[in-house]
Amino acid sequence: MSYISNPTLYLKSETHNNGLFNNVIQKGNWGSTYLYALQYHKKENYVFRGTKGYSPNYSQVYHGASLAAGHTQTLEYAGQSGTGHWFIGTKPNDQRWATQIARVKLPDGTHYNNADFPRLAYLNRAGGYTRVNGSQYKGNLMLRSDAAVSPESNHFLLFTVDRNSKNSKYGVNGYFTLFDLDRINNDLDNAGSGYVNLENEPYISNFNIPNITTEIGSLQGVDLDERNNIYISSEYAPTDDDYNTQPKKIVKIPWEASSSSQWDIITFDNANLDIDIAGYATELESVQVVGENDLYLTVSYHNKGSHKTTMSRLYEVKW
Could you tell me the pTM of the whole model? Predict the structure, then answer.
């Protein structure tokens, strides 16, 4: 394991929730024309879009409620030029995490049913249907799921976290499965408004990380580069008992590197880094990979006075 404490940060955008809720931005996306923001507000998903720039004003372009909701940090351009297709999490479980990945068209209105979209289902069955301990990876043992698309739209990454018993809110092991993006999109095209069962979907490669929540801690955003290195942002949200900034980092994991001895840890607690703001507690949220060791990082800021999330920034980070 190697530590990098001096990444270079470039502030690209700052919003004081112009058009947004006083919630964190679960996923920020710096697109070719627009800046997108995904928020989870009162158990519902909202996507907002603003003109790309330093101080964007956002307007709503998607709303997912009920079965079309689900806590997720997935908002990924699907790589099909001219279609407006994006991937987003849907269908909440007992802990409100999304259990399917839908492909939606933006802009759009309000949806209440995951069955409104072509979607990837049975995510627990991807890559072999087997847990770290060799037992069957049952659907009610999948706590959360997220997806990512590589920068040049070649690969689709599925990331899931299991739990030791149904209804538990605590994640344990992490599972990574790599697919060909064109194949995923073609199968979703053929599904209409139905689903693609990932148990039957050919995959390129997969691996797992035992006890990933112990090894890393908070699991926020996930993305990958074209060499299939995985990047995970990590920082616990402040609590009423400890409303302060927590240790924050990005973990770079080479493909199939199940041991933390092979990882790079990029830390952001260096006082010289322009990321902390007086009166606010930070929470690292999503990552959007541009290339190897080059990504956009969304950081939300919790006001220590009001305990509301009143500000977010998007940085480009290089090391």
Answer: 0.97
Q: Give all strands of the β-sheet with 119-121 in edge-to-edge order.
A: 75-77, 85-92, 98-105, 119-121, 195-197
What's the token pair of residue 269?
A: 């607690």
Q: Which two tokens stand for residue 162?
A: 């299991």
Q: Which domains does the chain have, with CATH numbers?
A: 2-318 (2.115.10)
Rounded to whole angstroms, how far apart are CA atoms 257 and 236?
A: 24
3-class state of residue 25 by DSSP: coil
Tally of helices (H runs) and strands (E runs) in the chain? 2, 23
The pLDDT tens digits of the residues spanning 64-120 come to 999 999 999 999 999 999 999 999 999 999 999 999 999 999 999 999 999 999 999
Chain CA centroid to CA 298, Å: 11
Residues 189-221: pLDDT tens digits? 999 999 999 999 999 999 999 999 999 999 999
Structure tokens belonging to residue 217:
């801690």
Q: In the chain, which residue ranges form alpha helices assigned H by DSSP? A: 181-191, 212-216
Q: Distance from CA of residue 192 to its chain's centroid?
A: 25
